[in-house]
Design a protein that fits this description.
- The complex is a heterodimer of chains A (439) and B (216).
- In chain A, strand 3, helix 15 (268-282) and strand 4 form a beta-alpha-beta unit.
- Chain A is built from 20 helices and 7 strands.
- In chain A, the strands form 2 sheets. In chain A, strands 2-1-3-4 form a 4-stranded parallel beta sheet.
- Chain A folds into 3 domains: 17-142, Fumarate Reductase Iron-sulfur Protein, Chain B, domain 2; 146-302, 3-Layer(aba) Sandwich (Rossmann fold); 316-426, Rossmann fold (3-Layer(aba) Sandwich).
- By secondary structure, chain A is mainly alpha-helical.
- Chain B has 216 residues and is mainly alpha-helical.
- Chain B has a single domain (2-31, 40-210), classed as Transmembrane di-heme cytochromes, Chain C (Fumarate Reductase Cytochrome B subunit), CATH 1.20.950.20.
- Chain B contains 10 helices and no strands.
- Classes of the chains: A mainly alpha (439), B mainly alpha (216).
- Chains A and B meet through helix 2, helix 7 and helix 15 of A and helix 2, helix 7 and helix 10 of B.
């Protein structure tokens, strides 16, 4: 890692080992201890990990990412830890250990959960990595760019600087430029739509597409300046306080307009966090349902509120974002949307819940230090797509899309990357599709 | 000496094993665990997922059979062979009757040819797994002293067991008993505890993700 002018070089950062240990002890519960007690070092997880498979570097073996927690558990918390300590069989973790593990915990784990499938013990390594990140951040470690993204989200409202004022400006610009109604801060609405700042700043057509689709289906929806940012870099970076703040904002936005449903845009981790961890971060059940945009559009299609002209321009394949499919359980809805629409749809192998990660999940996309290994990982996806013969790859996650766009450029790949909502909006067959529902 | 190994030391080892395993499992059960407040996609997805994961992770799934075939075959050869030997080898059945449950309760004993097949499968599986641990770059990086000790202790138990089969020499039987006792005492403190904790780990993952709609 190279330090920017005025920034402390990463290897000169002071490291608070005790803070890391304290955090791990605080997070270690019976659920995690069961995992740490079950690993037999069989190494099969390596064969399911894209970082290992792309590089054949044994250092990237997922089971190695359990080491920090295992060491703390065996020394300080597990039964017979006193005996182990007395016999010198449970050494204390050191600053050097933490620095050595840092790239494993951050740069080379997208928390995609693929290793869990192959593990004979079903160890959910991704969840242990997520907790371990919190300990590393407590110690003063973690990729500076990822941590900055989390701080931006806390201080400015989004990791890419989309403040409420910027949101208002961008919404006005997009609405005017595309002649589409984009509701912002309505008093009441059935549905609160959230956005990813990646979309807002890099793929604004995606926001326009969502507006067109929701308007076309006659949905009573709005964006809210109280809670609009769907991404949660607090979770990705291991900053628990930021994670909670981001969920609180969305909950406040939804409650202010009385929304019964919060729709998460094309973003995998945003869905995973709000849908499955939102209530836990908030400390109470969510007073609204959380749906990914593909789930919500699929429901509208089932109700006959959305119709599409067949897309026959080219063959397409679909990339499952890990946090929506494998770890989110919403695998079927994207396919339901493509069914009868993409006339030449081809599945990759493996696909669905077993699909390979794009290489940029878990915040790895935002880590400059991980760019090279991320591009290597993308070669797996390239091979998968090429095997289908489809010239275009559709996905439902702006983070995957950005990751794949960057790797496509770095590797001079010639396939097209598409967003499912943009593709659907471009082929919407509803009359008066730009007209929003009125209050 | 033989009397001590087959008498008091056996009961000490058995007690350490039972208390040690119980302690470790109780620790897992009594540690704090977060309450999941998210709304499940499937009403009984958690319980169903736990059961599914318990079964599903016994065999490679998700298109991973080809990648994990070596582990799958050698792992099953070792584990099935070992379980058959432990539970059905004639001297073991007789020993359990004599020391634990009495002669009134019993079950079929392995004929000699079946013992040989089970032993060969267990030995082949264990040796092949260990060769892989010593040569595979991933496993080499992962392995620590506990992994090696566990394998060697198990190997010695199996080897001395075969040597003692003829019961031609009381010393050989005592040596087998001694190695079994060492293994029983070592197990609760080691990674061999996976013989029990595998169920906890699988059930936990299955329960967590089953309620989301997909059990990995």
């Amino acid at each position: 890692m190279t330090a920017q002018p005025g920034e402390i070089a990463p290897d000169e950062r002071p490291v608070n080992v005790k803070a890391a240990i304290d955090k791990m002890e605080a997070l270690l519960g019976g659920h995690m201890a069961a995992y740490l007690d079950a690993c037999v070092h069989c190494g099969q997880c390596a064969q399911a990990c894209h970082f290992h498979e792309a590089t054949q570097n044994p250092r990237y073996t997922p089971a190695l990412k359990l080491q920090p927690m295992t060491r703390v558990y065996r020394r300080n918390m597990a039964p017979f830890s006193g005996l182990r300590k007395a016999l010198g069989m449970a050494p204390e973790i050191t600053e050097a250990d933490l620095r050595d593990w840092e790239p494993l915990i951050f740069d080379t784990c997208t928390m995609c959960g693929r290793c869990t499938i192959v593990c004979p013990m079903a160890i959910d390594i991704a969840s242990v990595v997520a907790a371990t990140r919190q300990a590393f951040v407590a110690a003063g470690l973690g990729p500076p760019d990822l941590l900055q993204a989390a701080d931006n989200a806390r201080d400015k409202g989004s990791p890419l600087g989309v403040t409420p004022e910027v949101l208002e400006d961008r919404v006005e610009w997009l609405a005017d430029d595309n002649e589409v109604e984009i509701a912002l801060d309505k008093d009441k609405a059935d549905v609160l739509l959230t956005v990813s700042s990646i979309e807002m700043m890099k793929y604004p057509d995606s926001v326009v597409a969502m507006a067109k689709l929701l308007n076309g289906a006659g949905v009573d929806w709005t964006l809210s300046s109280k809670g609009y940012e769907a991404t949660n870099f607090g979770v990705l970076s291991g900053k628990g306080d930021v994670a909670r703040i981001m969920v609180e904002r969305i909950a406040a936005g939804a409650e202010a307009v009385g929304a019964k449903t919060v729709v998460v845009p094309e973003c995998g981790h945003a869905y995973g966090v709000l849908r499955w961890s939102g209530a836990n971060l908030l400390g109470r059940e969510l007073p609204f349902e959380v749906l990914h945009i593909t789930e919500y559009l699929a429901a509208l299609k089932r109700q006959g509120k959305l119709k599409f002209k067949p897309y026959d321009a080219q063959a397409v394949t679909y990339h499952d974002p890990c946090q929506i499919s494998r770890r989110g359980g919403a695998t079927a809805d994207a396919r339901y949307l493509l069914e009868g629409f993409a006339t030449d749809f081809r599945e990759m192998t493996p696909t669905g819940n077993y699909n390979w990660c794009c290489g940029g999940g878990g915040g790895v996309q935002a880590m400059g230090s991980a760019a090279d290994v991320r591009h290597e990982v993308f070669r797996i996806k390239m091979a998968q797509v090429e095997a289908t013969g489809a010239p275009a790859l559709v996905s439902a996650c702006a983070n995957c899309r950005l990751t794949m766009d960057e790797s496509k450029k770095a590797l001079a790949w010639d396939k097209e990357l598409l967003s499912i909502v943009e593709l659907l909006a471009d082929n919407l067959d509803n009359p008066a599709s730009d007209t929003p529902a009125t209050d | 000496m033989i009397k001590f190994i087959e008498g008091p030391l056996w009961y000490v080892a058995l007690t350490v094993f039972i208390v040690g395993v119980a302690w470790r499992l109780m620790a897992l059960l009594t540690m704090k665990r977060p309450n999941d407040l998210s709304e499940a996609r499937l009403p009984r997805g958690g319980a169903g997922g736990a059961l599914k994961a318990l079964v599903q992770h016994s065999i490679p799934h998700g298109g991973n059979l080809g990648r994990t075939l070596y582990h799958f075959l050698t792992g099953y050869m070792f584990h099935i062979g070992l379980f058959i030997l432990v539970l059905f080898a004639a001297p073991h059945v007789e020993f359990i009757q004599k020391h634990l449950i009495g002669a009134d309760i019993g079950w079929p004993k392995l004929p000699r040819w079946a013992f040989i097949i089970a032993a060969e499968a267990a030995f082949a599986g264990l040796i092949l797994l260990y060769v892989h641990r010593l040569t595979d770059p991933v496993k080499k990086q992962l392995s620590d002293i506990d992994d090696h000790l566990g394998v060697w202790l198990t190997f010695i138990v199996m080897l001395t067991g075969c040597l003692a089969l003829q019961e031609a020499h009381a010393g050989l039987r005592a040596f087998h008993m001694l190695s079994v006792e060492a293994l029983l005492i070592y197990l609760p403190f080691s990674r061999l505890i996976h013989a029990f904790t595998f169920a906890f780990a699988r059930a936990r993952t299955g329960a967590t993700y089953g309620r989301r709609g997909f059990t990995p």
